[in-house]
Amino acid sequence: MQAYSFSRRAWLLGAGTVGMGGLLSGRMAWLSIAENARYNSLAESNRVNATLVPPRRGWLVDRHGQPIANNRTDFRVDIIPDRLRDNDRVLRLLGQLLRLPPEEVERVRIDLDRAAGFQPVQVAENLDWERFAAVSVRLPELPGVQPTRGFARHYPAGAAVAHLTGYVGAPTAEQFKETRDPLLVTPGFKLGKDGLEKALEQHLRGQAGAKRVEVTARGKLVAELATRPDVPGKNARLTIDAGLQEYAARRLGTNSGSAVVLDCRTGEMLCMVSMPAYDPNSFSDGISHLEWQMLSDDDHVPLMNKVTQGLYPPGSTVKPMNTLALMAAGVAPTDRVLCTGALRVGTGVFHCHKRGGHGAVDMKTAVAQSCDIYFYEMIRRMGYDRIAPVARELGLGQKFELPFSTQRYGTVPDSAWKLRKYKDRWTVADGLNASIGQGYVLANPLQLAVMAARIASGRALQPSILADRVHRDAPALPFDSEQLQHVRDSMWAVVNGGGTGAAARLLVPGMSIAAKTGTAQVRRITMAERRGGVLKNGQLPFKLRDHALFVCFAPAENPRYAAGIVLEHNGHTVRNLDTPMIGRDIMTYLLDRDRALASLAEVEPTWGGDITTRMAAQAAAYRAARNPAPAAAATKTDGVVPSDAPAVEAATSLANQTQAALAEAPAADTPAAEGTTERTP
Amino acid sequence: MSSRLVPEPLAQLPWRVLFLIAAISAFGVMMLYSAAGGSVRPWALPQGIRFCVFLVGAIIVSRVPEDWFRKGAMPAYVVLLLMLVGVELLGHVSGGSQRWLDLGIIRLQPSEFMKLSIVLACARFYELLPAGQTRTFGAVWPAAALIGMAAAFVMLQPDLGTGLMICSGGATVMFLAGIPLRLFVGGALGVAVAAPLAVNFLLHDYQRNRILIFLDPESDPLGTGYHISQSKIAIGSGGIWGKGFLNGTQSHLDYLPEGHTDFAFATMAEEWGLVGGVLLIAAYILVVLWGLNVAQRSTSRFAQLTAAGLSMTLFFYVAINLAMVMGLAPVVGIPLPLFSNGGSAQMTVLLCLGILMAIDRQNRRRPAW
Q1: A211 CB-contact burial (10 Å; exposed 0-12 / middle 13-18 / buried 19+)
Q2: Are the beta carbons of B249 and A47 separated by less than 8 Å?
Q3: Of the partner residues A6, A31, A215, the one whose CB lies closest to the CB of residue B236
């Protein structure tokens, strides 16, 4: 009985053993057959680690295919943390070889502490060949150091295209947190930070390549596997003419200004210049605090894109548009107004820019001579509400469909607008101020260029900057073609008929330019000042000088190109730096390039050379002003005069002058809200 | 029938089972060679030498008469229990968990021997028990006390895996001794009820964690669940035929933790696939069945219970380790005997086989009549 029980139970255990063996085999078969694919891929993702290779960024090219932004070879040095041994010695040696400042070495040290395994940490980029080679030849002593040839963004025209292209830079921590895209923390990867670089980011970026390596669980590199190449970003062709862009930027000279040129047949933007500007090349590498400070301190606002973000009272440049509106409202071009130099409206006195008055003026003369009284009187009669729709029709106050993130589009005021905005009644004075492009009227330079182009073409052109998105076949404007021709004729007279823009007369044989000048006051001229004689712009601090504006198209007979130019606080002080000659030269470049280049070569040296030279001089002066040479203190004790003392002194004094000019400028720089006039009490 | 060419003692050895365990060990040494990245050091060579030494030891043990084991069973149990208490006290003195006694020449891990000793002690107890009393309470509590004391001190170390094996080994002997089935069924139900409570109140944090993570390994893929996840990846990615000798990535690139000890099976399975795994499992099962067969052929009650109990101890070793490696059981630190790197388990298992061979030899000497 007992033996029987034992053998039966032992047999039971044997059966259990075999059963368990079957169960384990079954489980194993499940893992290795049914789930094989899943576990295979898991094992593979354990084993292989991909290091991203930043994709080459697509180029920005101009209408002829010439690069505006391309990529140049960038010599850089990274460290693979896992392969690094003897950190302190390696970092010290790298610091010497690359001539890194101590704070940069410290930054690398901190990055290394945070880094994991094989993910490279950037030591330095944008190295010259000499320093790159110095590291490369000593690699055996530098375990873990990896000199790499990457790509860096390059803007051949430098500052001339800064506000057009924007710049690129390393992504911010916030951007990484948003997307968790590992590409964003890959050394050497840059993305668009401003301008077209930012707007076209997805188009230009491309797809990252990958260097695949086999790594252990601790991140130790075992072998390098096949590399997946990057897919370069797509190029973007712009409507910009790179030559014109650079020419216009140089031709603006020392002005704080902007210029836009449009093709009158299609609305394509041929140039979009805002100067002065930062150098997008050095911006893309990351700039020093000092450089940043210098740019922010500059009263010529190099950090702002004045074309899309600058708003100015358009001044007299609206007068051709006014005449179109007046004709549409029934005013005959032959109707005359007597200009005596001033006009009393209610309790206010409105002055013409010509003290003695223009006498009896008709429409064409009013435009040519820029007579304020004619427009005061006519618009007082018709009411500004009949002008405003035409202003909008011609592009003022309009926002255009362009790939720029910020576009300030200004104001075309009328009575409804004022009621909405200020809960107030529209006054005659409001209309009079608006009639000469002051008061509530604000426009950006692009709108001025569009206005000129629409007058020149008679069509509702839309500006475009991407070559594949040109708004062709713009509809005709709802104006009588004879009236439009009259406007064009009067603009022709501004330059060629004894008008205010005679300096813009084209020197290209057989062609002429049609234009309108403008001046916008940014300060109020008091009665007292007017009695004592209005101050000349040259006597005023920079920030109080008048803006100079200019719209034009050429050739006047068969318009091809239209332009809008705004020079902040230009004050019409220097002739060849004033709008008419700049406008003429920019137009000349399009019609007779050699003549334009010769003209530039003549004047450029008078204002301190080309853009790069002037920017370098400015930076040197600023640096000298900020860091008063410490050597000077030492020289007093040992009595040795350093050889570079005079140069430092000169630079310092120049910088001091700049600072002084800045200090004089008032804090607020609001456009004259009340226009050119004042009211007698 | 012994041939004249082969000496009598050699011919008497159970060659088939010796071949099986030699094959398992050789396979294990190859695995260790691969786990070290294709090198006999640091694991494969010492493991091979140890195996040869212990095998000789096992053959010597196989010459020991059955009676010696019978008489030594209880004293050995008492000595080991005292040593466990000593380990526990020393552990308190030195702080932290301790599992071995350092005797100067060798480190003795009494819990390891207790796995065998408990089987012998229980077998001896049931041999002494008069046949009529197996169904009384007096047949249960002394054995339960033997098991309970041993298991309690081992669990205190804390060593959950060994404690589990001592309980299983003791319970197997009780089962074979003819203790009523309802007690086991009742016991199983009791465990089912008590286990969740024990998990919550008796286990150490890390032990509780292992069980919780076992229930859902993906919940903590980089922490405690890492072991199970990586082990399953190794086995699963091996497929039917494996990645080939020396080609395992999980083990060579250190993703598989403990790839040469507790998770040795995963290391092997990655390179040899399902085929290698099934062959290895089959080899173990054959050894266990051989042991049960020895028990069936034994005449004395002590020999029957000892042989079957030791066979099942070997089986528990294998089953618990494989279940753990395949993600069917929590991680409980039990090596795969003869296969994993490590002298203790190797010694225990070969000692176990030595005793089985001794009983086998006894059986053949006195053929049943």
Answers
A1: middle
A2: yes
A3: A31
Instruction: State the nearest Cα–Cα gap between A16 and chain B, in angstroms.
Output: 10
Q: Which residue has the higher pLDDT, B210 or B217?
A: B210
Rg (CA), chain A: 34
* Dist. CA A578–CA A564, nearest whole Å: 13
Q: Output the CA torsion A382→A386→A387→A391 (10° steps).
A: -170
| Over residues B304-317, mean pLDDT | 94
Q: What is the pLDDT of residue A645?
A: 36
HEC string of A361-402 equals: ECHHHHHHHCCHHHHHHHHHHHCHHHCHHHHHHCCCCCCCCC
Residue A50 CA to its chain's centroid (Å) = 36
C-alpha to C-alpha distance for A313 and A548, rounded to whole angstroms: 10
Under a CB-based contact definition with an 8 Å cutoff, are residues A537 and A520 in contact? Answer: no
Residue type at A669? D
Residue range B241-245: mean pLDDT, rounded: 91
Residue B357 makes CB contacts below 8 A (sequence gap 6+) with B13, B14, B17, B58, B59, B61, B62
CB contact under 8 A, B277 and A32: yes
Round to whole Å and give the CA distance between A651 and A670.
32
Give the pLDDT of residue A649: 40
Interface contact flag, B308 A17, Cβ < 8 Å: no
Crossing angle of the two packed helices A445-457 and A319-328, in degrees rounded to 10: 50
DSSP secondary structure string, A210-254? EEEEEE-TT--EEEEEEEEPPBPPPPEEBS--HHHHHHHHHHTTT
User: pLDDT category, B367, cuts 50, 70, 90?
Assistant: low
CATH class as words, domain A242-607: alpha beta
Q: What is the ipTM of this complex?
A: 0.91
Contact by Cβ (8 Å): A295, A414: no
Q: How far apart are CA A13 and CA B288, in angstroms?
A: 10
Whole-model pTM over 0.80: no
Residue ranges per domain, chain A?
50-237, 242-607
Is A19 exposed, middle or buried, given 0-12, 13-18 or 19+ CB atoms closer than 10 A? exposed
What CATH number should be reported for the domain whose range is A50-237?
3.90.1310.10
CA distance A286 to B265: 55
Q: How far is CA B326 from the centre of its chain?
A: 18
Q: What percent of chain B has pLDDT over 70?
A: 89
Say which residues have a Cβ less than 8 Å from residue A295's Cβ, sequence separation at least 6: A278, A302, A303
Q: For chain A, what is the total number of helices (H) and then of strands (E)? A: 27, 20
Pairing status of strand A359-361 against strand A514-520: unpaired
Local structure of A276: helix, strand or coil: coil
What chain A residue is nearest to B301 in terms of C-alpha separation? Answer: A3
Per-residue pLDDT tens digits for A157-193: 999 999 999 999 888 888 888 887 888 878 888 889 8
Q: Are A209 and A185 in contact (CB under 8 A)?
A: no
Q: Give B106→chain A minimum CA distance, Å.
A: 34
- Chains A, B: CB contacts within 8 A come to 126
